Amino acid sequence: MSTSTTVEASTTGAYRTPAFWERLWRMSGINFVVFFIIAYAIYGYQPQVGAAADALVKFYDGDRTRILIAAVVSGMAVLNLLWFAAALRTTLADAGQDGWGAAATASSAAVGGLLLLLITVGAALAYSIARSGNHALTSGLNDLAWACVVLSLDLTRSR
């Protein structure tokens, strides 16, 4: 004779309740601000549009490690922004404001996409493009990064 024993997972754990996840998603708005400020402080001041090739190479190649660390922290900021938008959408849907929830989701996705593009361009410049010696490409991507900054700021103001 053999007896079968099954272990059942406890459903009363703190991490299994919807309230835990809802609280975590709502806190992600604060986490977004914290990660964004930390990333901004680590990243430093990016050269302006039309900067000299030497200044671009000095910034992107000379401070490569710092820029790549800031890219990871910025990615966490964008992730928390999208989590917060999901929590906001849920709260608005519960209040009967589905249209506003959809608008919050769409606008956060647009801003998140532009921020991810900005992070990717900065990381690519720091990782290998700036040191390749192609100054025209480096300058063009730096100008594209500034255009993404302007567009993301414009999208956040239009909310």
Give structural notes.
- It is a single chain.
- With 159 residues, the protein is mainly α.
- The chain has one domain.
- Helices cover 77% and strands 0% of the residues.
- It has five helices and no strands.
- α1 packs antiparallel against α3 (64-94).
- The model has no long low-confidence stretch (mean pLDDT 81).
Short description:
The protein contains five helices and no strands.
Beta-strand residue percentage: under 5%
Q: Which spans of ≥5 residues are poorly predicted at pLDDT below 50?
A: none
N- to C-terminal distance: 68 Å
Largest sheet: none
The number of distinct structural domains comes to: 1
The structure class reads: mainly alpha
What's the SSE blueprint?
Blueprint: H1 18-43, H2 53-62, H3 64-94, H4 98-129, H5 135-157
Helix pairs in contact: 1-3, 2-4, 3-4, 4-5
Record keyword descriptors for this entry.
single chain; 159 residues; mainly alpha
